[in-house]
Amino acid sequence: MKKIRHSRLPITLESSDRLTPDMLKAAAAGKVEFLIDQQQYLQGYLPIAIFAQYMRWGTMPAGVVMTGPGFVTPDNASKVIKWAAQGYR
Q1: 26/19 Cα distance (integer angstroms)
Q2: Disulfide-capable partner of 31 in 19, 26, 78, 88 (CB 3.0 to 4.6 Å)?
Q3: Is 70 left (phi over 0), alpha (psi -120 to 50) or beta?
Q4: DSSP states along 14-83
Q5: pTM recorded for the entire structure
Q6: Rg (the chain; Cα; Å)
């Protein structure tokens, strides 16, 4: 985790390569305004699903397939905590 304090604004930016339980709890408690979720489950699952469809039926998605980013806020953090505990986020 890396913290960056802005010199002229009253904000602190924190970066991490994943949604850690501590960061999710901070979001749920309103200590963090938002987190950016790369949604690794979708990044790993969709290429396999797309490849399987291509091999079976020769079809490909018609456009860009968005897998993120998702945003975790105090309003939805409790749902994300549930799915993260099960390994989906």
Answers
A1: 11
A2: 26
A3: beta
A4: EE-SS--HHHHHHHHTTSSS-EEE--HHHHHHHHHHHHHHHHHH----SS------EEE-TTTHHHHHHH
A5: 0.65
A6: 17
